[in-house]
Amino acid sequence: MFATETYALPILRPLAAAARARGKEVGWVVPAAVAEELDAGERRVRSLREARALHPEAVYCAANWVSPALPGIKVQVFHGFNAQKREPDRGHFAIRGFFDLYVTQGPSTTLPFEALAREHGYFAVRETGWPKLDPLFGPASATALDIPSDGRPVVMYASTFSHRLSSAPAMVEPLRDMIARGDRQWLLTLHPKCPEELFAAYRGLEAPNARFYTSERLVDMERAADVLVCDTSSVVHEFAVMGKPVVTIANRVPQPFMLDVPAPGDVDVAIDHALSHPPELMAAIRAHGDDIHPYRDGHSSERVLDAVDEFLRGDFGLLKRKPLNLVRRFKALRDIGHLLDLR
Protein backbone atom coordinates (compact mmCIF):
# COMPACT_ATOMS: atom_id res chain seq x y z
CA MET A 1 0.00 0.00 0.00
CA PHE A 2 1.54 3.29 -1.15
CA ALA A 3 0.29 6.36 0.71
CA THR A 4 1.95 9.77 0.80
CA GLU A 5 -0.75 11.52 2.89
CA THR A 6 -2.85 10.55 5.90
CA TYR A 7 -6.06 10.86 3.87
CA ALA A 8 -4.92 7.80 1.90
CA LEU A 9 -5.25 5.53 4.94
CA PRO A 10 -9.07 5.17 4.89
CA ILE A 11 -8.86 4.63 1.12
CA LEU A 12 -6.40 1.74 1.33
CA ARG A 13 -7.34 0.11 4.63
CA PRO A 14 -10.45 -1.70 3.29
CA LEU A 15 -8.28 -2.98 0.44
CA ALA A 16 -5.60 -4.13 2.87
CA ALA A 17 -8.22 -5.93 4.97
CA ALA A 18 -9.59 -7.72 1.90
CA ALA A 19 -6.07 -8.76 0.88
CA ARG A 20 -5.31 -10.14 4.35
CA ALA A 21 -8.61 -12.04 4.26
CA ARG A 22 -7.25 -13.79 1.15
CA GLY A 23 -4.08 -14.75 2.99
CA LYS A 24 -1.90 -12.07 1.40
CA GLU A 25 0.84 -10.20 3.26
CA VAL A 26 0.47 -6.42 3.27
CA GLY A 27 3.17 -3.77 3.69
CA TRP A 28 2.80 -0.01 3.87
CA VAL A 29 5.12 2.39 2.04
CA VAL A 30 4.52 5.70 3.80
CA PRO A 31 6.45 8.78 5.00
CA ALA A 32 7.20 9.23 8.68
CA ALA A 33 4.23 11.55 9.27
CA VAL A 34 1.81 8.94 7.92
CA ALA A 35 3.62 6.11 9.70
CA GLU A 36 2.64 7.73 13.01
CA GLU A 37 -1.00 7.01 12.11
CA LEU A 38 -0.51 3.33 11.26
CA ASP A 39 -2.16 0.83 13.56
CA ALA A 40 -0.10 -1.69 15.51
CA GLY A 41 -0.78 -4.46 13.00
CA GLU A 42 0.08 -2.39 9.93
CA ARG A 43 3.64 -3.09 8.87
CA ARG A 44 5.68 -0.20 7.53
CA VAL A 45 8.10 -1.10 4.73
CA ARG A 46 11.27 0.84 5.50
CA SER A 47 13.58 0.05 2.58
CA LEU A 48 13.58 -1.00 -1.04
CA ARG A 49 15.33 -4.17 0.04
CA GLU A 50 12.46 -4.94 2.39
CA ALA A 51 9.94 -4.14 -0.33
CA ARG A 52 11.65 -6.52 -2.76
CA ALA A 53 11.80 -9.23 -0.11
CA LEU A 54 8.01 -9.18 0.10
CA HIS A 55 7.78 -10.11 -3.63
CA PRO A 56 4.60 -8.03 -3.98
CA GLU A 57 2.17 -8.77 -6.76
CA ALA A 58 1.04 -5.16 -6.84
CA VAL A 59 1.55 -1.70 -5.39
CA TYR A 60 -1.79 -0.01 -4.68
CA CYS A 61 -1.56 3.76 -4.93
CA ALA A 62 -3.77 6.50 -3.53
CA ALA A 63 -1.35 9.10 -4.93
CA ASN A 64 -0.88 10.32 -8.51
CA TRP A 65 2.67 8.95 -8.66
CA VAL A 66 4.60 5.88 -7.57
CA SER A 67 8.26 4.95 -7.72
CA PRO A 68 9.20 2.56 -10.54
CA ALA A 69 11.78 1.11 -8.12
CA LEU A 70 9.05 -0.63 -6.12
CA PRO A 71 8.38 -4.18 -7.37
CA GLY A 72 4.97 -5.35 -8.57
CA ILE A 73 2.42 -3.94 -10.99
CA LYS A 74 1.37 -0.39 -10.20
CA VAL A 75 -2.36 0.06 -9.53
CA GLN A 76 -4.02 3.49 -9.43
CA VAL A 77 -6.77 3.39 -6.77
CA PHE A 78 -7.31 7.21 -6.75
CA HIS A 79 -7.40 9.61 -3.82
CA GLY A 80 -10.85 10.98 -4.59
CA PHE A 81 -13.64 11.39 -7.08
CA ASN A 82 -13.38 13.76 -10.01
CA ALA A 83 -14.26 17.00 -8.22
CA GLN A 84 -13.39 19.05 -11.34
CA LYS A 85 -10.99 21.33 -9.48
CA ARG A 86 -8.78 21.58 -12.57
CA GLU A 87 -8.98 21.12 -16.32
CA PRO A 88 -9.27 17.42 -17.30
CA ASP A 89 -5.70 17.01 -18.58
CA ARG A 90 -4.33 18.37 -15.28
CA GLY A 91 -6.75 16.69 -12.92
CA HIS A 92 -8.46 13.34 -12.52
CA PHE A 93 -7.73 12.15 -16.07
CA ALA A 94 -4.07 13.17 -16.26
CA ILE A 95 -1.91 10.30 -17.52
CA ARG A 96 1.58 10.38 -16.01
CA GLY A 97 3.02 7.07 -17.19
CA PHE A 98 3.39 5.37 -13.79
CA PHE A 99 0.52 2.88 -13.71
CA ASP A 100 -0.24 -0.50 -15.25
CA LEU A 101 -3.85 -0.76 -14.11
CA TYR A 102 -6.50 1.85 -13.30
CA VAL A 103 -9.35 0.57 -11.12
CA THR A 104 -12.17 3.03 -11.69
CA GLN A 105 -15.10 4.04 -9.51
CA GLY A 106 -18.03 4.13 -11.94
CA PRO A 107 -19.12 4.84 -15.53
CA SER A 108 -18.27 8.55 -15.38
CA THR A 109 -14.59 7.71 -14.90
CA THR A 110 -14.46 4.29 -16.56
CA LEU A 111 -15.43 5.47 -20.03
CA PRO A 112 -12.84 8.30 -20.24
CA PHE A 113 -10.07 6.04 -18.91
CA GLU A 114 -10.99 3.27 -21.33
CA ALA A 115 -10.66 5.80 -24.18
CA LEU A 116 -7.26 6.85 -22.79
CA ALA A 117 -6.20 3.20 -22.53
CA ARG A 118 -6.99 2.68 -26.21
CA GLU A 119 -5.05 5.83 -27.06
CA HIS A 120 -1.92 5.04 -25.03
CA GLY A 121 -1.94 1.25 -25.06
CA TYR A 122 0.30 0.62 -22.03
CA PHE A 123 -2.25 0.33 -19.21
CA ALA A 124 -5.50 -1.49 -18.53
CA VAL A 125 -8.76 -0.31 -16.96
CA ARG A 126 -11.30 -2.17 -14.86
CA GLU A 127 -14.37 -0.70 -13.15
CA THR A 128 -14.46 -1.95 -9.57
CA GLY A 129 -15.86 0.77 -7.33
CA TRP A 130 -13.74 2.57 -4.75
CA PRO A 131 -12.38 0.72 -1.69
CA LYS A 132 -12.78 3.77 0.53
CA LEU A 133 -16.56 3.54 0.25
CA ASP A 134 -16.82 -0.12 1.31
CA PRO A 135 -17.34 0.85 4.97
CA LEU A 136 -20.20 3.16 3.98
CA PHE A 137 -22.27 0.16 2.95
CA GLY A 138 -21.12 -2.45 5.44
CA PRO A 139 -21.90 -2.92 9.14
CA ALA A 140 -21.15 0.00 11.44
CA SER A 141 -17.50 -0.04 12.47
CA ALA A 142 -16.10 -0.04 15.97
CA THR A 143 -15.18 3.61 15.36
CA ALA A 144 -18.75 4.69 14.57
CA LEU A 145 -19.60 8.09 16.02
CA ASP A 146 -21.84 8.20 19.05
CA ILE A 147 -24.43 10.78 17.99
CA PRO A 148 -27.40 11.33 20.31
CA SER A 149 -30.73 10.39 18.72
CA ASP A 150 -32.64 13.42 19.89
CA GLY A 151 -34.41 14.43 16.69
CA ARG A 152 -32.00 17.19 15.71
CA PRO A 153 -30.59 16.87 12.18
CA VAL A 154 -26.90 16.04 11.88
CA VAL A 155 -25.01 18.42 9.57
CA MET A 156 -21.48 17.74 8.39
CA TYR A 157 -19.14 20.50 7.23
CA ALA A 158 -16.02 19.75 5.16
CA SER A 159 -13.78 21.83 2.90
CA THR A 160 -11.06 21.51 0.33
CA PHE A 161 -7.60 22.96 1.06
CA SER A 162 -7.22 24.91 -2.20
CA HIS A 163 -7.14 28.61 -1.28
CA ARG A 164 -9.13 29.72 -4.32
CA LEU A 165 -11.87 27.12 -3.75
CA SER A 166 -12.02 26.70 0.03
CA SER A 167 -14.98 28.10 1.97
CA ALA A 168 -13.38 27.26 5.34
CA PRO A 169 -12.03 30.71 6.31
CA ALA A 170 -15.30 32.47 5.45
CA MET A 171 -17.44 29.83 7.18
CA VAL A 172 -15.96 30.16 10.69
CA GLU A 173 -18.32 32.88 11.89
CA PRO A 174 -21.50 31.61 10.14
CA LEU A 175 -20.81 28.19 11.67
CA ARG A 176 -20.28 29.75 15.09
CA ASP A 177 -23.71 31.44 14.85
CA MET A 178 -25.51 28.30 13.63
CA ILE A 179 -23.86 26.10 16.26
CA ALA A 180 -24.83 28.55 19.01
CA ARG A 181 -28.55 28.14 18.15
CA GLY A 182 -28.38 24.50 19.20
CA ASP A 183 -31.06 23.27 16.78
CA ARG A 184 -28.66 21.03 14.81
CA GLN A 185 -25.83 18.68 15.60
CA TRP A 186 -22.60 19.50 13.76
CA LEU A 187 -19.68 17.36 12.60
CA LEU A 188 -16.74 19.49 11.43
CA THR A 189 -13.62 18.51 9.53
CA LEU A 190 -10.94 20.02 7.29
CA HIS A 191 -8.62 18.71 4.61
CA PRO A 192 -5.30 17.73 6.26
CA LYS A 193 -3.44 20.22 4.07
CA CYS A 194 -5.31 23.20 5.51
CA PRO A 195 -3.13 25.58 7.56
CA GLU A 196 -2.77 24.93 11.28
CA GLU A 197 -4.36 28.25 12.23
CA LEU A 198 -7.52 27.13 10.43
CA PHE A 199 -7.48 23.84 12.34
CA ALA A 200 -7.23 25.83 15.56
CA ALA A 201 -10.21 28.00 14.56
CA TYR A 202 -12.36 24.96 13.79
CA ARG A 203 -11.39 23.14 16.96
CA GLY A 204 -12.46 26.32 18.73
CA LEU A 205 -15.99 25.85 17.35
CA GLU A 206 -16.53 22.69 19.38
CA ALA A 207 -19.56 22.78 21.66
CA PRO A 208 -22.02 20.29 23.18
CA ASN A 209 -23.65 20.04 19.74
CA ALA A 210 -20.51 20.39 17.58
CA ARG A 211 -17.49 18.12 17.31
CA PHE A 212 -14.34 18.42 15.23
CA TYR A 213 -12.75 15.30 13.69
CA THR A 214 -9.69 14.82 11.49
CA SER A 215 -10.09 13.35 8.02
CA GLU A 216 -9.32 9.81 9.21
CA ARG A 217 -12.90 9.79 10.61
CA LEU A 218 -14.43 11.03 7.36
CA VAL A 219 -16.33 7.84 6.55
CA ASP A 220 -17.78 7.66 10.07
CA MET A 221 -18.90 11.28 9.73
CA GLU A 222 -20.48 10.65 6.34
CA ARG A 223 -22.44 7.71 7.71
CA ALA A 224 -23.71 9.74 10.65
CA ALA A 225 -24.70 12.97 8.86
CA ASP A 226 -28.05 13.81 7.28
CA VAL A 227 -26.71 16.60 5.06
CA LEU A 228 -23.27 17.83 3.98
CA VAL A 229 -22.10 21.42 3.60
CA CYS A 230 -18.98 21.70 1.46
CA ASP A 231 -17.40 23.61 -1.45
CA THR A 232 -15.42 22.00 -4.30
CA SER A 233 -14.18 18.71 -2.89
CA SER A 234 -14.54 15.04 -3.80
CA VAL A 235 -16.25 14.60 -0.40
CA VAL A 236 -19.33 16.10 -2.10
CA HIS A 237 -19.47 13.08 -4.40
CA GLU A 238 -18.74 10.53 -1.68
CA PHE A 239 -21.69 11.86 0.30
CA ALA A 240 -24.04 11.90 -2.68
CA VAL A 241 -23.32 8.21 -3.37
CA MET A 242 -25.25 7.47 -0.15
CA GLY A 243 -28.31 9.27 -1.55
CA LYS A 244 -28.02 12.19 0.87
CA PRO A 245 -28.32 15.91 -0.01
CA VAL A 246 -25.36 18.25 -0.33
CA VAL A 247 -25.19 22.03 0.03
CA THR A 248 -22.20 23.48 -1.83
CA ILE A 249 -20.71 26.95 -1.52
CA ALA A 250 -19.57 28.49 -4.82
CA ASN A 251 -18.75 25.11 -6.33
CA ARG A 252 -16.41 25.41 -9.30
CA VAL A 253 -18.76 23.36 -11.51
CA PRO A 254 -22.25 23.27 -9.93
CA GLN A 255 -24.33 20.24 -10.90
CA PRO A 256 -28.05 19.39 -10.59
CA PHE A 257 -27.49 17.07 -7.61
CA MET A 258 -26.03 19.94 -5.54
CA LEU A 259 -27.81 22.77 -3.77
CA ASP A 260 -25.19 25.35 -4.68
CA VAL A 261 -25.26 28.77 -2.97
CA PRO A 262 -23.03 31.77 -3.77
CA ALA A 263 -21.93 32.70 -0.25
CA PRO A 264 -21.67 31.40 3.34
CA GLY A 265 -24.60 33.59 4.41
CA ASP A 266 -26.91 31.51 2.19
CA VAL A 267 -26.02 28.18 3.78
CA ASP A 268 -28.48 28.21 6.70
CA VAL A 269 -31.63 28.40 4.58
CA ALA A 270 -30.17 25.92 2.05
CA ILE A 271 -29.66 23.33 4.80
CA ASP A 272 -33.36 23.46 5.70
CA HIS A 273 -34.27 23.11 2.02
CA ALA A 274 -31.93 20.11 1.66
CA LEU A 275 -33.41 18.43 4.71
CA SER A 276 -36.88 18.68 3.14
CA HIS A 277 -35.64 16.25 0.44
CA PRO A 278 -37.17 17.91 -2.65
CA PRO A 279 -38.10 15.10 -5.11
CA GLU A 280 -36.31 16.66 -8.09
CA LEU A 281 -33.11 17.09 -6.07
CA MET A 282 -33.23 13.55 -4.69
CA ALA A 283 -33.73 12.12 -8.19
CA ALA A 284 -30.66 14.05 -9.38
CA ILE A 285 -28.65 12.71 -6.42
CA ARG A 286 -29.61 9.12 -7.25
CA ALA A 287 -28.71 9.56 -10.92
CA HIS A 288 -25.36 11.11 -10.03
CA GLY A 289 -24.55 8.33 -7.57
CA ASP A 290 -25.29 5.67 -10.19
CA ASP A 291 -22.99 7.45 -12.64
CA ILE A 292 -19.98 7.90 -10.38
CA HIS A 293 -20.25 4.84 -8.11
CA PRO A 294 -23.12 2.38 -8.70
CA TYR A 295 -21.81 -0.15 -6.17
CA ARG A 296 -23.65 -0.40 -2.86
CA ASP A 297 -22.48 -3.84 -1.73
CA GLY A 298 -19.32 -2.89 0.17
CA HIS A 299 -17.15 -5.24 -1.92
CA SER A 300 -15.21 -2.89 -4.18
CA SER A 301 -11.94 -3.96 -2.52
CA GLU A 302 -12.54 -7.57 -3.56
CA ARG A 303 -13.20 -6.44 -7.13
CA VAL A 304 -9.90 -4.53 -7.13
CA LEU A 305 -8.05 -7.67 -6.03
CA ASP A 306 -9.87 -9.70 -8.69
CA ALA A 307 -8.82 -7.15 -11.34
CA VAL A 308 -5.18 -7.50 -10.29
CA ASP A 309 -5.47 -11.30 -10.52
CA GLU A 310 -6.86 -10.88 -14.05
CA PHE A 311 -4.00 -8.57 -14.97
CA LEU A 312 -1.40 -11.01 -13.65
CA ARG A 313 -3.02 -13.85 -15.63
CA GLY A 314 -2.76 -11.77 -18.80
CA ASP A 315 -6.52 -11.42 -19.27
CA PHE A 316 -6.14 -7.81 -20.44
CA GLY A 317 -3.99 -8.87 -23.39
CA LEU A 318 -0.60 -7.65 -24.49
CA LEU A 319 0.15 -4.08 -23.47
CA LYS A 320 2.83 -1.73 -24.72
CA ARG A 321 5.80 -0.81 -22.56
CA LYS A 322 5.29 2.24 -20.39
CA PRO A 323 7.01 5.40 -21.67
CA LEU A 324 10.41 6.23 -20.18
CA ASN A 325 9.38 9.68 -18.92
CA LEU A 326 12.91 10.19 -17.65
CA VAL A 327 12.22 13.42 -15.76
CA ARG A 328 9.20 11.99 -13.93
CA ARG A 329 11.04 8.73 -13.21
CA PHE A 330 14.01 10.64 -11.79
CA LYS A 331 11.72 12.70 -9.53
CA ALA A 332 9.89 9.57 -8.39
CA LEU A 333 13.17 7.80 -7.58
CA ARG A 334 14.36 10.89 -5.71
CA ASP A 335 11.13 11.19 -3.78
CA ILE A 336 11.05 7.55 -2.76
CA GLY A 337 14.42 8.12 -1.16
CA HIS A 338 13.92 11.56 0.35
CA LEU A 339 10.20 11.70 1.15
CA LEU A 340 9.78 8.12 2.31
CA ASP A 341 13.34 7.65 3.57
CA LEU A 342 13.76 4.40 1.64
CA ARG A 343 17.16 3.09 0.57
Quick summary:
The protein is an alpha/beta fold and about 350 residues long. About 35% of the residues lie in helices and about 10% in strands. A six-stranded parallel sheet has the order 7-6-5-8-9-10, with helices on both faces. The chain has a four-stranded parallel sheet with strand order 1-2-3-4, with helices on both faces.
Q: Give the low-confidence spans.
A: none
Helix content: 25-40%
Biggest sheet record: 6 strands, parallel
What class do helices, strands and sheet pairing give?
alpha/beta
Q: Proportion of β residues?
A: 5-15%
* Cα end-to-end separation: 17 Å
Question: How large, in whole angstroms, is the Cα Rg?
Answer: 20 Å
Mean pLDDT: 91
SSE order in H/E notation?
HHHEEEHEEHEHEHEHEEHHHH
Count of DSSP-assigned helices? 12
Total E-strand runs: 10
Strand order of the largest sheet: 7-6-5-8-9-10
Shape: globular
Provide structural commentary:
This protein is α/β, with parallel strands linked by helices and 343 residues long. The chain has 12 helices and 10 strands. The protein has helices at 9-21, 32-35, 48-53, 107-120, 168-181, 196-203, 218-224, 235-241, 267-275, 279-292, 300-313, 326-338, and strands spanning 58-61, 73-76, 101-104, 124-127, 154-157, 185-188, 210-212, 227-230, 246-249, 258-261.
